């Protein structure tokens, strides 16, 4: 750990760790609601679907507010626990993951999808799992405990999502779907993979921060 005389003279604002943990919770809550929505998509009423979409949107809005709070308070904080550029990047990237999830939920509604594509449940399992790991990562950032192990597990899930995406696209073009479903389902799969990629990128940023502070 690098020695810095300011560590003894001025307190470092650790509130940013708490804020980013809250951001991670917003993503996880939205992911769990989305997973449940996809599992019960053909069974629940339009009113229940609307409520699920609204809940995901509320998570996205809470995440936006936390991102704004982080950026506003960065401009007012003299000593930060990690580089302010890294805090800014993390806040933006976590928010991006929530945004993609919310956009996907909206598109499924707008496209009038009546049945989610075949591998949606498997993608949702990966998204919830990697969201859980991102939460662990945010909680452990201050102590730096198990950072490498958590990030490695996140990257394994990202590789699984890549393989699942390729498998899903191959199945989609196997002549078993009409042209409209191919267009809609392909975009859904692309969003699902992008969500996992966005969360995995957060893990890579945290790993880089740990390396810089070593």
Brief write-up:
With 214 residues, the protein is an all-alpha fold. It has helices spanning 6-9, 15-39, 46-74, 84-110, 120-140, 147-172, 179-213. It has one domain (14-213): Phosphate transport system protein phou homolog 2, domain 2 (Methane Monooxygenase Hydroxylase, Chain G, domain 1, Up-down Bundle).
What does this structure look like?
The chain has 214 residues and is an all-alpha fold. The protein has a single domain (14-213), classed as Phosphate transport system protein phou homolog 2, domain 2 (Methane Monooxygenase Hydroxylase, Chain G, domain 1, Up-down Bundle). The protein contains seven helices and no strands. The protein has helices spanning 6-9, 15-39, 46-74, 84-110, 120-140, 147-172, 179-213. The longest helix has 35 residues, at 179-213. The chain is globular, with a radius of gyration of 19 Å.
How many beta-strand runs?
A: 0
Average of per-residue pLDDT values: 89
The CATH class label is Mainly Alpha
Named at the architecture level, the CATH assignment is Up-down Bundle
Structural class: mainly alpha
Instruction: Give the amount of beta strand, in percent.
Output: under 5%
Secondary structure: helix percent:
over 70%
Q: What's the CATH topology name?
A: Methane Monooxygenase Hydroxylase, Chain G, domain 1
Radius of gyration based on Cα positions:
19 Å
Largest sheet: none
> Considering the protein shown, what is the CATH homologous superfamily?
Phosphate transport system protein phou homolog 2, domain 2
């Amino acid at each position: 750990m690098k020695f810095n005389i300011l560590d003894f003279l001025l307190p470092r604002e650790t509130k940013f760790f708490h804020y980013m943990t809250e951001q991670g919770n917003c993503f996880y809550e939205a992911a769990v609601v989305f997973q449940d929505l996809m599992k019960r998509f053909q069974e629940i009423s339009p009113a229940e679907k609307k409520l699920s979409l609204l809940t995901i949107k509320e998570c996205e809005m809470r995440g936006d507010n936390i991102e704004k709070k982080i950026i506003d308070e960065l401009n007012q904080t003299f000593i930060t626990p990690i580089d302010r550029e890294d805090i800014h990047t993390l806040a933006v990237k976590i928010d991006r993951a929530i945004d993609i999830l919310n956009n996907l939920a909206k598109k499924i509604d707008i496209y009038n999808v009546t049945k989610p594509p075949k591998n949606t449940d498997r993608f949702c399992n990966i998204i919830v799992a990697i969201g859980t790991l991102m939460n662990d990562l945010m909680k452990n950032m201050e102590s730096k405990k198990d950072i490498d192990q958590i990030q490695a597990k996140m990257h394994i899930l990202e590789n699984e999502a890549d393989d699942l995406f390729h498998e899903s696209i191959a199945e989609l073009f196997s002549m078993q779907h009409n042209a409209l479903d191919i267009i809609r389902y392909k975009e859904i799969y692309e969003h699902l993979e992008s969500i996992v990629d966005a969360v995995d990128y957060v893990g890579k940023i945290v790993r880089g921060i740990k390396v810089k502070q070593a």
